[in-house]
């Protein structure tokens, strides 16, 4: 299929627009879940949406998207409120409350799904696609519903930005400022349920948790401010959603939902590896640099201590003497210290046996060694 024909395909247009909207709203709302250390929240709400999908189907008497999404929003929000009540009115921790809500609501959803399949309703075909998503079934009318839900969520975020920001970083301080913390937390949780509702058609109940969390996790690696994190998370969500949809279109038979998640997982992997100052590669390089600096400091202070022991700042130390003192080869460290001008290399006098090079501290090297030893001394006293 040519590029023009591919871009003009009605189904692909629907899938790409839906994936972009899903990535946008999931990226924005997922940031608050990650910052509040509730990464399991997306998983809980997505599984809790299943009974709502079934209830919407039963009430509408068929596969009517508006009723199904309304039901999913209702049960997802209800599960979120149950989780909040359990954490506020019992000794249960957040993770235990999330686990209880997830298990109970998903079990109810499976029971209702089994009941619907046993009724013989001809329109129930494809209802189980909400478990894993069926992006190709997205209609233009579905996009309008998704756009409306996404718009409501984004307007709420914009209108309550300062309050959400404060509650996410320091809920106790927010309470001292008179903010209704419980109400704001409940509202944020319901908004994440909105994101789940948007994604049910695209990626399904099972994979929706990754859609909420992955863009925010990737963005957190690159950002130090919430504003930057939210914008990057939205961008990563859109890119991952559109990329997965396009790859699915290019490969016949490939499921769109899992490919969207795999695209986002690739973004997360790149971010974890290469994000400046936080990525694994940067950490490894920093660790190697710190180890190299420590070796250089040990060699420098060893030369200084040998000179102090002989009461001669110009004492000439041999490499093998330094090696014996440290128990390791000091050649590279000596070369590096020489390049920095902290030590100088001297050739032994002709009347001395051997041809071993000698190393002498420069005035700058003496000052640097004294500074290092002084810092170590203060650290030990502290």
UniProtKB/TrEMBL annotation:
Main location: membrane
Entry keyword annotation includes Transmembrane: yes
Transmembrane stretches, start-end: 12-35, 44-62, 68-86, 98-116, 143-161, 173-194, 200-218, 230-254, 260-285
Keyword hit for Transport: yes
Compartment(s) of residence: Cell membrane
CDD domains, per the entry: TM_ABC_iron-siderophores_like
Superkingdom, taxonomy of origin: Bacteria
SUPFAM superfamilies named among the record's database cross-references: ABC transporter involved in vitamin B12 uptake, BtuC
Pfam families hit by this protein: ABC-3 (PF00950)
UniProt membrane topology term: Multi-pass membrane protein
GO CC, alphabetical: ATP-binding cassette (ABC) transporter complex
GO BP annotation list: cellular response to iron ion; iron ion transport; response to zinc ion; transmembrane transport
Keywords: Cell membrane, Ion transport, Iron, Iron transport, Membrane, Transmembrane, Transmembrane helix, Transport
Entry's family note: Belongs to the ABC-3 integral membrane protein family.
Name of the featured protein: Metal ABC transporter permease
């Amino acid at each position: 299929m040519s590029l023009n024909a591919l871009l003009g395909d009605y189904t692909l247009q629907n899938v790409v627009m839906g994936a972009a909207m899903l990535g946008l709203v999931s990226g924005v709302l997922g940031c608050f879940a990650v910052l509040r250390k509730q990464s399991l929240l997306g998983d809980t709400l997505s599984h809790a949406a299943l009974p709502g999908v079934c209830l919407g189907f039963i009430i509408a008497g068929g596969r009517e998207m508006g009723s199904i999404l309304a039901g999913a929003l209702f049960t997802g929000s209800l599960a979120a409120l149950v989780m909040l009540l359990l954490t506020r009115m019992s000794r249960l921790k957040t993770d235990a409350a999330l686990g209880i809500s997830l298990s109970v609501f998903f079990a109810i959803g499976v029971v209702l799904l089994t009941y619907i399949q046993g009724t013989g309703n001809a329109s129930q075909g494809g209802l189980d696609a909400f478990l894993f998503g069926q992006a190709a079934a997205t209609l233009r009318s579905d996009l309008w519903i998704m756009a409306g839900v996404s718009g409501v969520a984004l307007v709420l975020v914009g209108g309550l930005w300062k309050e959400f920001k404060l509650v996410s970083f320091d809920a106790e301080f927010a309470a001292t400022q008179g903010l209704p913390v419980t109400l704001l937390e409940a509202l944020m949780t319901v908004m994440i349920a909105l994101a789940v509702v948007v994604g049910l058609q695209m990626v399904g109940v099972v994979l929706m948790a990754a859609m909420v969390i992955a863009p925010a996790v990737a963005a957190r690696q690159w950002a130090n401010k919430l504003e930057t994190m939210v914008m990057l998370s939205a961008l990563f969500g859109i890119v991952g959603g559109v990329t997965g949809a396009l790859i699915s279109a290019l490969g016949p038979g490939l499921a769109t939902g899992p490919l969207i998640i795999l695209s986002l997982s690739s973004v997360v992997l790149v971010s974890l590896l290469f994000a400046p100052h936080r990525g694994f590669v940067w950490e490894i390089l920093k660790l190697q640099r710190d180890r190299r600096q420590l070796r250089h400091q040990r060699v420098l202070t060893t030369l200084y201590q040998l000179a102090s022991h002989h009461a001669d700042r110009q004492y000439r130390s041999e490499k093998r003497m330094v090696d014996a003192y440290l128990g390791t080869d000091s050649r590279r460290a000596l070369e590096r210290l020489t390049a920095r001008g902290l030590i100088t290399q001297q050739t032994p006098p002709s009347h001395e046996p051997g041809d071993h090079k000698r190393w002498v501290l420069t005035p700058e090297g003496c000052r640097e060694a004294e500074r290092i030893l002084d810092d170590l001394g203060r650290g030990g006293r502290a």
